[in-house]
Specification:
- The termini are far apart.
- The protein has a single domain, classed as Beta Barrel (OB fold (Dihydrolipoamide Acetyltransferase, E2P)), CATH 2.40.50.140.
- About 30% of the residues are buried.
- The protein contains two helices and seven strands; from the N terminus they run E-E-H-H-E-E-E-E-E.
- The chain has about 180 residues and is α+β, with helices and mostly antiparallel strands.
- A hairpin with a 3-residue loop joins strand 6 and strand 7.
């Protein structure tokens, strides 16, 4: 089931260059999206996950399956941010999505973005297209496939998120390099 996330915070993006989660893993494009708990959007995600599990495993066992995998990040893509120690996760749900195919990455006006544009970055706000799927290959689970990301607005960058700007530096007019040490 495909769902569009609206104005969510972006974390751990690998949108332009695929990364492995750990050595030996396949390279994937990925991102985590932070959704405020108790919102209509959080409820829509829960509903989409339930419908996805029902479609794969049947209505009778769906809630039991979700309860058994919830909290296991290796089996369930939607985690309680309060169980994480990362900046910005408190009071949020964290939805991890990945894909072996590079996702569409666009700006507010729908023009394509490249890595050198400096956005999107960890901490900014985005819209995203993800598709949930349930599986039963190494045990039952629910994952999300990353389809695309649209930059919405700036936010406080998470560590290592946004490139420096010229304003982060002083002009060194006439300064000798030895005087700066």
């Amino acid at each position: 089931m495909k769902i569009k996330l609206q104005n969510v915070r972006l974390s751990f993006p690998a949108l332009f260059t695929p990364e492995a989660f750990k050595p030996g893993d396949a390279l994937k494009f990925k991102a985590t999206f932070l959704i405020e708990k108790g919102t209509d959007q959080a409820a829509a995600i829960e509903k989409a996950i339930l419908e996805t599990v029902r479609a794969k495993f049947g209505a009778k066992d769906a809630e039991k399956i979700i309860a058994s995998i919830r909290g296991n990040a290796n089996k369930f893509c939607y985690q309680d941010g309060d169980t994480k120690t990362f900046d910005g996760y408190e009071g949020m749900m964290a939805l991890g999505a990945k894909n072996s195919t590079r996702p569409l990455v666009i700006d507010r006006d729908r023009t394509p973005l490249a890595e050198q544009d400096g956005k999107p970055y960890a901490g900014c706000y985005v819209n995203a297209s993800v598709e949930f799927f349930a599986y039963d290959n190494t045990g039952k689970g629910v994952s999300a496939s990353l389809g695309g990301v649209q930059f919405v607005k700036d936010g406080d960058a998470f560590a290592g998120g946004k490139a420096a700007s010229e304003d982060d530096f002083d002009a060194l007019d006439g300064a000798d390099a030895d005087d700066l040490v």
